[in-house]
Amino acid sequence: MSADRRRPPAAATADETDAVVDTAAPPAAGSGQSESLLTIVVAGGANLLIAAAKLAAGVLGGSASMVSEAAHSFADTVTEVLLYVAVRRGARPATPDSPFGHGRESYFWALLAAMFTFGAGGVFAVYHGVQAIVSGERSEHLALSYAVLAISAVLEGVSLLRGLHQVRGSARRLGVGMGEYLRRTPDTALRAVTLEDSAALIGIALAAAGLGLERLTGSTLYDGLASILIGLLLCVVAYRLISANKALLIGQSVPPRTHDELVAELAALPGVAGVPELFATYLGPEQILVAAKIDFVDDVPAGEVERIADEGARRLHDRHPKVSHVYLDPTDRGRA
Q1: Which stretches of the chain score pLDDT less than 50?
Q2: Got the DSSP string for 12-51?
């Protein structure tokens, strides 16, 4: 565990020094990154096959909802490529120009992926659905379209199961529910794949319903309406992903439960009277920065401050392996 410290004068007490003790722990192991990369590759491969099959069925059969589903899968494929870039570039080590690493760059690329889903998937599907309703062209080759949708559902299901497997394991390790984990996880690639695969299965159901209702009623309204609903669904998913990535880029704090655990660990250190203030934010999917003001008891020698700070950083890292940087400021509670 490396440390860059400014030592207080030997004769000073903890209440008399304004020194900031910076203890940097090595980043957590990249097992989460490897899992996310596998999840992305599985999803990207499935979406590429699905996009080609849907496009062929949509063009041959003249179905607006099938063409919209093809756009959906194509957008998802490009999204997976951008997410792959996000994970790889975000995992690069720190440099003099980026002393905290490049973790937040992953959120930038993930933000671009979400915006592409909104434009290339959602907006296009809505536009194509309106166009289909206005033109009144009927779909053909219904059997082909249903066969493609069935195969697509299987492939999307495999990809979704892979994502849910990772979500379940991560949520279990943290002792939270899967829904809460997905809402709060800094692993934006995992969140994106899981939400997009879920939306893809709903979109397949909408496309199948639109085709069936068109055949039963003879009206092209239902196929076009299914396309519009698919587009709106993609816009909702994209908006959620854009909002999540924006918050992480700005500097999202850790969940309240994690924050309270970090405070409790520091407050339990020998010689610590309290923790008046603590901030913890994500530097990337695998890194958390912690900055806290520590109120030491009056009789703690200045020489002990550094040792207690090192112990505090070790405890935080042991409890939460993603804690990579810890900054502790010895502070008088009355002046905090």
Answers
A1: 1-19, 25-29, 336
A2: -BGGG----EEEEPPPPPTHHHHHHHHHHHHHHHHHHHHH
DSSP E strand stretches across the chain: 2-5, 21-24, 272-284, 287-296, 323-330
Copy the structure tokens of residue 73: 């899968």
Cα–Cα distance between 50 and 197 in angstroms, integer?
A: 12
Q: Nearest CA to 88 among 78, 98, 80, 96?
A: 80
pLDDT tens string 94-137: 888 888 888 888 889 889 888 888 887 888 888 878 887 887 77
> Strand pairing partners for 4?
22
Length of the chain: 336
Cα separations in angstroms, 8 against 114, 224, 296, 327: 48, 71, 14, 15
Using DSSP's 3-state secondary structure scheme, residue 141 falls into coil
3-state SS assignment for residue 279: strand
Report d(CA 88, CA 305) in Å as an integer: 38
Which residue has 């587009």 as its token pair? 231
The pTM of the full predicted model, rounded to 2 decimals, is: 0.75
Q: Under 8 Å CB-to-CB from 247, ≥6 apart: which residues?
A: none
Report in angstroms the alpha-carbon separations of 68 from 76, 143, 301, 303: 12, 18, 69, 67
pLDDT of residue 31: 54
To which residue do tokens 């639109």 refer? 210
Instruction: Look at residue 333 in the predicted model and tell me its pLDDT.
Output: 59
Asked whether 120 and 144 are in contact (CB, 8 A), the reply is no
> 181, 167 in Cβ contact below 8 A?
yes
Burial-class residue 1 by CB neighbours within 10 Å (0-12, 13-18, 19+): exposed
